[in-house]
Q: What sequence folds into this?
């Protein structure tokens, strides 16, 4: 979706290795709106340093959006580490068998 559908609305996406802060710094452009990251990336299982990335992003004047679906709030609470908006899947906690669909944001 980030690199296909959003381009229909003139929204561009830059993909960066979040484990390398220098790559993130180099990717910051004049008009970024937010940094979107997975607290634990799927399928690579990489864990970004949310706090330092948050400091970097906040200095640039935009927000940190954390997808915490893989980690869950039992493992990681990104708001405590500098995240501004957290997206989580509630489906796997309500009905592991996928008999319903749910989500939450904080």
A:
């Amino acid at each position: 979706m980030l690199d296909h559908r959003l381009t229909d609305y003139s929204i561009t996406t830059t993909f960066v290795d979040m484990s390398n802060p220098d790559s993130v710094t180099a990717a910051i452009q004049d008009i970024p709106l937010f940094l979107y990251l997975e607290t634990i990336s799927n399928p690579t299982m990489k864990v970004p340093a949310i706090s330092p990335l948050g400091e970097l992003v906040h200095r640039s004047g935009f927000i940190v959006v954390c997808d915490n679906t893989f980690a869950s709030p039992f493992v990681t609470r990104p708001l405590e580490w500098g995240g501004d908006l957290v997206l989580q899947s509630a489906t796997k906690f309500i009905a592991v068998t996928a008999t319903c669909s749910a989500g939450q944001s904080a």
Q: What stands out?
A: The longest strand covers residues 34-38.
